[in-house]
Each structure stands twice: as structure tokens, then as C-alpha cells.
Amino acid sequence: MTAELPFRSRLRASLPAYAFLSPWLVGLFGLTLGPMLLTLYYSFTDYSLLAAPEWLGLDNYTRLAGDPRYLDSLVVTGTYVLFSVPFELIAALTVAMVLNRGMRGLTFYRAIYYVPSLLGGSVAIAILWRQIFGSDGLVNQVLAIFGYEGSGWISSPDTALSTLIILRIWQFGAPMVIFLAGLRQIPAELLEAAAIDGAGKVRRFLAITLPLLTPIVFFNLVLQIIGAFQAFTPAFIVSGGTGGPSDSTLFYTLYLYQRAFGSFEMGYAAAMAWVLLLIIAAFTAANFMMSRRWVFYSDEGKR
Which residue intervals define the domain ABC transmembrane type-1 in the entry (predicted)? Predict the structure, then answer.
């Protein structure tokens, strides 16, 4: 039986491990947990960066309910999430199924479709998007060929948010790669047996492919909802940081930025940030609870 080492000996033996972990620990406490706890404190204060914070209690949180622009940002962000996430996942799954057919040059096409995911959230792509959907942009030039005079898609409150939803859908590359990996894991013998029994393509997709792919759908759904709630750059660049026209692109994060760095209401912005965190946590928890009804795990043999 091995005698237990003294505490100092065990500590000395663990020092190299802690040395390698130290960069991660510094990042966790100095760049993540520390700032989060600080913003939680600021959310209960009146803080402008230029003066010491003054304790307000729950005033910042109660003000949110009576702030019309805040409520508008909730509606805009909710609409953005509601329409962009499902269509993005449908586009990703459709392209993944096409690429899963064993076509030549698969690696090339996979890289091409993945590029928008790498560039879609960048400032350069947002500027390009503004040029494409501008009054003299590429979309209106194409419409002019067919005799239709298009309007300024970004300058109109009726269509500005739609252009940002299209931009989000265009970034389907990341979920597409995950769908493609999931499709490769579906046993081919199941599809072959179903085909022998007379099941058509649609029947095989609905009865075999889609149920076995539901864990991947669920994973992508959670990630994309979280990402959509955090969208900022496209709305900031396309609207010039105003959320216009008529607050039609006033995303939650953009309004938070305006209050924090435009009005220097750090306490109010911190309260908004924590409410956003709770909203995302609530959506994620709801997805996990509902997943018991529709996500199928083949290794457990139950939903």
C-alpha cells in the first residue's frame, strides 16, 4: 500500500500543471468572471465612466420596461432570430444533403460554402452588403434589367431588417459543415433497406435521415439562436450605428452599445446586458426541455 504524500510534496508535484494552466486561469478570472461580476454590480448603479458609481438598486431594471426604444430593440431582435435561424438551418441542411451525394470536388465546394461563415460577421462584408442593397446597388441594377425599379432596400424601414436576415442566412456554412458530418454518420444500410422496401427519397428522409439527424439539428439550433441574439456588426455598419431607418435595425446589442458608449450610461447598459443573458439562458433552457420530445438518440433508443 502506497503511503500518502505530504501536502508540500503533492503541491510541488502539481506546480508544473498549475503553471501550464495559469494563462487560462488568468483569462477566466481576469477577462471573464471578473468583468461579469463587475457589470452585475454596475447594473445596480448610476455609472458614467467619468464619476464614481452611485447605488440605485433596481432602478435600471425597472426603467427598461418603460423605455420605448428598448422595447423596439426587443421586437427587432426577436424578429431577426425568429426568421433568420430557421431559414439558415434549412439552407445549411439542404446544401449539406446535396454535398453528401458524393459529388466530385466536394472539398472545394465545402470550402466555398463555408467562407461566408468566416467573413459574414466582418465589417468588410457588412459594408459590401450595404453597397449591394443600396439604391444604386447590385440588386437594383439586376432588377433594372427586367424593367423593375427597385427602392433603397436598406434605407426603407420595410425592407432594412430583411436584408440583415438574408445576410444571416447567407452565413450557413458553419452549420452546413456540422450537418454534413452528421449525415456521414447515418448507416447506409438503413437507407438501402428502406429503398428495397419501396420507400422513396422523401419517405427515407422523413423516416430515417431526419430522426437520426435531430441531435445535430438541436446542436445547431442552440448555437445559432445564441449567435443571432448577439448579432451586432451588420446592424451597426449597415445603419451607420443608428439602428435606422426608424429603428428598424435597432438590434438589442446595438442599443446596448448606444447607451453604454453614446450616452455613457454604463449602469443602464450593464442591466441590459444581464437581461440579454437571462433571455438567452431562458431560450436555451426551453430548447433543452423541448428536446426531450423531438430529439432522437439512437444509442439510447428513446426520445
Answer: 70-287
